[in-house]
Amino acid sequence: MRRLHQNLTQESLAHAAGIDRSTVQRMEGGHEMKLSHLLLVAHALRVHVTDLLHG
User: Fold this and answer.
1) 17 and which of 31, 33, 44, 52 could share a cystine (Cβ 3.0–4.6 Å)?
2) pLDDT, tens only, 4-27
């Protein structure tokens, strides 16, 4: 996943996306992720989902 610098902690991003912090941690680590989680994170960051995938 591409690094987006918005000065958010994993915990605050997880809260904004409505997912667990451990899910954000796994996503940042490049582990397999659900599309639904990716869409929630993109919405929370106000970016297009493809912005998270290009990098």
Assistant:
1) 44
2) 667 889 999 999 999 999 999 999
In angstroms, the CA 51 to CA 29 distance is: 17
Which tokens go with 9? 């902690």
Rg (CA), the chain: 10
Start-to-end C-alpha separation, the chain: 7
CB atoms under 10 Å from CB of 44, counted, come to: 19
Round to whole Å and give the CA distance between 49 and 4.
Answer: 12
**pLDDT at 2 (0 to 100):** 52
